Amino acid sequence: MTAAEGVPGAAWRRADGPPAQDRERRRRSGGRPPRPGESVVGEAEFTSYYGRPVIKPPVWKTPDVPLYLFLGGAAGTSALLGTMAELTGRPALARAAHLTAGGGALTSVGFLIHDLGRPARFLNMLRVFKPTSPLSVGSWVLAPFSALTTATAGAHLLGRFPRLRLLTGLGAAALGGPMTTYTAALLADTAVPSWHEAHRELPFAFAGSAMAAGGGIAVACSPAEEAGPARQVAVTGALVELAAMHRIEHGHGLVSEPYRTGRAGRLLRAARACTVTGTALTLAAGRRRVPALLGGALLAAGSAVTRFGVFDAGLASARDPKYTVEPQRARAAERDAAAAGAPS
Amino acid sequence: MTTISSASTAFSGDDPRNRLFGPVPDVAGERGYGEDHPPRVGFFTDTSVCIGCKACEVACKEWNTLPMDDAEGNRAQLGLTGASYDNTGMLGANSWRHVAFVEQSRAVDLPMPTVGAPGSAGGQRPLADPPVVHPGVPASSTTAEQSAPQQTTSGDREIRWLMSSDVCKHCTHAACLDVCPTGSLFRTEFGSVVVQEDICNGCGYCVPACPYGVIDQRQDDGRVFKCTLCYDRLTDGLQPACASACPTESIQFGDLDELRARADARLAALQEKGVEGARLYGHDEDDGVGGAGAFFLLLDEPEVYGLPPDPVVTTRDLPSMWRHVAAGAALVVGVVASAFAGRRR
Fold this sequence. Notes:
The structure holds two protein chains of two kinds. The radius of gyration of chain A is 23 Å and the shape is globular. Chain A is built from twelve helices and one strand, in the order E-H-H-H-H-H-H-H-H-H-H-H-H. In chain A, helix 4 (91-115) crosses helix 8. Chain A has helices at 17-30, 41-45, 64-87, 91-115, 134-158, 162-188, 193-196, 202-221, 228-250, 262-285, 289-319, 321-341; one strand at residues 13-14. Chain B has eight helices and eleven strands. Chain B is 21% helix and 16% strand. The relative contact order of chain B is 0.19. Chains A and B meet through strand 1, helix 1, helix 3, helix 5 and helix 6 of A and strand 2, strand 4, helix 3, helix 4 and strand 7 of B. Strand 1 of chain A pairs antiparallel with strand 2 of chain B.
């Protein structure tokens, strides 16, 4: 380790005139004023290269990628629900869930391809298999999953091939679990501070979100006498989603901040309102049709808006260099202190 | 005949350790290149002798026929940033070398309060090592012998310029390469990391994966582009265009081992002359990316130049991510199964 000689920083300050100072002032006043008791020390000590981001913000498009996350999750849970319903003799629930799975998976693939810079080269995704790339693993999950769910949904629509339908449904259900959570690794395996630091909680947030969405849609689209299990999945999912998102929004110090502020903060507050109301309605609905429909729709909406919020928080944390620099600075200082404190 | 894999070192290497993180002594050999592969090469960029001429940027653009863009990556746009002489702005799809310009000042450190001594030499205190001025002679490699060539006083302030030519780091553990789902990014026999443009489908995963913000998607093209360490020139025995063009040898190209030794010597020389803040950046094999193929001698904190102070390859935490993903998936399967179990219609 080659530490700096003399005083760190040595009191040098950037001195390139009014334009840079104005820009910096605008950047700082852009955010909301600090809440009482919130530290502003880091802000003052933090330096950057003309306020430019250190890492490149993701080039993934909105709404393509958030919708791809939402639909993939909803489809994963739906495939599991549909096949379990098929096996336990709930034909209406099976049909609704399998149609959701097929439709969701196909649309999800559509959004993924549309987001590519060279959509015609989509099949290059299946050129290699790389466990270090969540997108490669995800492509190898999504491709067979969408084929199987589409076949299952098609068989439901045609009302034929019951045996084939059961087989493709079982295949889709086997991939349903991974479908709900691989997208969490997809976001976390980046240098985006607010996504990477949340890599332990994101899979559970997405698992819960997927269950709330898949369960909610199934509750809304199937008769009450068959929807019992879907209701249980939806409510459990909503609770998991709320708990995991709470940890993401509060458990990681500075890099949790983008989840609570700006557009992402507003989206996530709206998502929480949808999920909480949807849960209450679903629990209170009993066998009444209208509240069940509304509750299921709200749970699905909460899940979708959560994906938009998480996506937006990541973009915000990538755009402001403070979220990259300050945690790294603190980490390096901690390591240096530990090295200095340790007996040599 | 060896098989060259575009998979990560993590799953192709023989050594069970350091597959995602830590030092890798032979990064090309680890990827399946035979014993006879060339030694790992890279850049040592000594910013203490950079004069901000941008010859590296121009040479790179010309050799690699990179399109024109502004500081935000907008194609065929001209724009002034107002950020000193830097109108390139950042590394990106169309700028594979980027010269950073930082103008700094600080109050001169007075030895004592000048009470009762008006007109004493407070603001005029000379620097310990005043910069040598060569009238009529442009800055050249002789400035390397000065301890602080781009520093002077102005009234009661000291001012200095920091200039640094940034480039892709060609990391030992390259996140862009790890996360690329198509195998478009690969490790060359020289240890560098290169995009195969005929394979890239523009998924954009490498863009936020890079801890340095180097690689980016090109507008109106859709694919990603970055420094190739002039792979085409290397295979013909030439050095990269930027290093050839650099007039002060601020950009030095060569075998990485030799460059590291040279950098250590240069740092020791500067520290001996009392240059404040000189430090190496990216040369340490124990850092978060297993050491960079392009490393730097800086005169201030990395973030002042727009570099991350403690970058870590994101895939270091991938085993933990996959474990949590598996647990989450198991939770979903369990919740759905239990919702149906023990329930009679």
